[in-house]
């Protein structure tokens, strides 16, 4: 970090040091959190520009502030790229994040008290799909479908039966801990049968969809919401993609319904990420994410780990650590000390509490962004097994020896695979 009279280090050395520490941590650990990734240097550069100085309520050509000649072009470029990458009629790139994007869909399509349907949070759904602790669960009559207790997969017959019984006006498919392919055509058929608007929340798999490594909801879902980070490898923001009949309602719901001015520096970063997603190498990257996840899942299963649904079709793996004799939270904490970042996670029908659940959630997008492949996934599985096995022994010395050993090997591998955006 260069020191100049107006640099961050000169103005606020305490914060500069903390940011430097985070850069070091990101270089020296293996990021296995399914909702995280590394952005490119170009995306980082776009988000750290003078665009943050400009306020732009409204839409291109219809702003409430002057001086929008450049901002209008930037937002239009982002919209056009989103439509081209995903093949949609309409795109709104202004939502601040995924949850506000989903709230905008509610505002555009239903009224308070209406029945809405989504995957239950403990099954892998998202808070904003009508879960009780979310505003969406308090303002709407929310009903939820589940996964099979044995299969760990969505039973579309159960979804259809529930939809026929409850007649929801809005149906969400997608979620935060779904390791299997989402059957968009089947959801669309059910939504048509009951007269519901179908929303595909592809926040986790947007990069896989863009890269052709997961089927697209386009042509099946009326509205698609997504964050722009995770597998899409952009800045922390969101988009709403829609068919033409819902375009105006979505735009009005985002602004003025829920937000003021968009974050123009984020819009620029989204535009850059979409440009990157349109390149041939992005497709190779997306398919490698899946190949890495499949290999990691197979290696973990071979080492006695229990995988929810038995495996994965995408970037995400959900482990039930019960057969290993440990819980998710202490396992995640021990792995973190060893340089392997994961997050503890509820599993379907989890007997434990959400803040101390049975599971771990893993993702391969960030490791793939560093250039790692199947052979490195086998190493990751070995390291995870070493730490978790030591933890199950209940002996702290054994745990510390395993953590120290794995940490040393992680340090070696991170030195061989640079971090996009940080190491050139």
Task: Give the topology.
Elements: H1 8-11, H2 13-28, E1 30-31, H3 41-47, E2 58-59, E3 62-63, H4 69-86, E4 90-92, H5 98-109, E5 115-119, H6 135-139, E6 141-145, H7 156-166, E7 170-173, H8 184-194, E8 197-201, H9 206-210, E9 223-227, E10 238-242, H10 247-258, H11 264-277, H12 280-302, E11 306-307, E12 316-320, H13 328-337, E13 340-341, E14 343-345, E15 359-363, H14 365-369, H15 374-393, H16 396-416
Parallel strand pairs: 1-13, 5-6, 5-7, 7-8, 8-9
Antiparallel strand pairs: 2-3, 4-10, 9-10, 11-12, 12-15, 14-15
Helix pairs in contact: 3-11, 4-11, 5-10, 7-8, 12-15, 13-15, 15-16
In short:
The protein is α/β, with parallel strands linked by helices and 424 residues long. 46% of the residues lie in helices and 13% in strands.
> Tally of extended strands?
15
Mean pLDDT, nearest integer? 97
CATH topology of the largest domain: Aspartate Aminotransferase, domain 2
What is the CA-atom radius of gyration, in angstroms? 22 Å
State the helicity in percent bands: 40-55%
Shape label:
globular
Unreliable segments of 5+ consecutive residues: none
CATH class descriptor of the largest domain = Alpha Beta
Side-by-side strand order of the widest sheet? 4-10-9-8-7-5-6
Cα end-to-end separation: 14 Å
- The DSSP helix count reads 16
């Amino acid at each position: 970090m260069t020191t100049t009279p107006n640099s961050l280090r000169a103005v606020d050395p305490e914060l500069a040091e903390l940011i430097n520490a985070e850069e070091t941590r990101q270089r020296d650990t293996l990021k296995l959190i399914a909702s995280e990734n590394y952005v490119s240097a170009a995306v980082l550069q776009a988000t750290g520009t003078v665009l943050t100085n400009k306020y732009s309520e409204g839409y291109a050509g219809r702003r409430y502030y002057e001086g929008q000649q450049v901002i209008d072009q930037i937002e239009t470029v982002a919209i056009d790229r989103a439509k081209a990458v995903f093949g949609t009629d309409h795109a709104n790139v202004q939502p601040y994040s995924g949850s506000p994007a989903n709230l905008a869909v509610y505002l555009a399509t239903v009224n308070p008290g209406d029945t809405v349907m989504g995957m239950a949070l403990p099954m892998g759904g998202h808070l904003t799909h009508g879960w009780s602790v979310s505003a969406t669960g308090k303002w709407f009559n929310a009903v939820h479908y589940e996964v099979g207790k044995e299969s760990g997969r969505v039973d579309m017959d159960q979804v259809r039966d529930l939809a026929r019984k409850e007649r929801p006006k809005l149906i969400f498919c997608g979620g935060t801990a779904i390791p299997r392919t989402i059957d968009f055509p089947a959801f669309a058929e059910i939504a048509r049968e009951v007269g519901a608007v179908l929303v595909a929340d592809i926040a986790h798999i947007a990069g896989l969809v863009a890269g052709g490594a997961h089927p697209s909801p386009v042509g099946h879902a009326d509205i698609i919401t997504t964050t722009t980070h995770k597998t899409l490898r952009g800045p922390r923001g969101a988009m709403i993609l829609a068919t033409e009949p819902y375009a105006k309602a979505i735009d009005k719901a985002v602004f003025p319904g829920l937000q003021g001015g968009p974050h123009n520096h984020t819009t620029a970063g989204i535009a850059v990420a979409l440009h990157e997603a349109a390149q041939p190498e992005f497709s190779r990257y997306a398919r490698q994410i899946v190949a890495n996840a499949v290999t990691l899942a197979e290696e973990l299963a071979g080492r006695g780990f229990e995988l929810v649904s038995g495996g994965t079709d995408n970037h995400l793996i959900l482990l039930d650590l019960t057969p290993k004799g440990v819980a998710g939270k202490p396992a995640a904490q021990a792995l973190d000390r060893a340089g392997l970042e994961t997050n503890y996670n509820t599993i379907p029908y989890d007997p434990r509490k959400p803040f101390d659940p049975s599971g771990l959630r893993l993702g391969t997008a960030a490791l793939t962004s560093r250039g790692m492949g199947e052979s490195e996934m086998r190493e990751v599985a070995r390291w995870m097994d070493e730490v978790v096995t030591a933890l199950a022994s209940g002996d702290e010395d054994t745990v510390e020896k395993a953590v120290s050993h794995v940490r040393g090997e992680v340090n070696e591998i991170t030195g061989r695979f640079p971090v996009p955006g940080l190491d050139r």
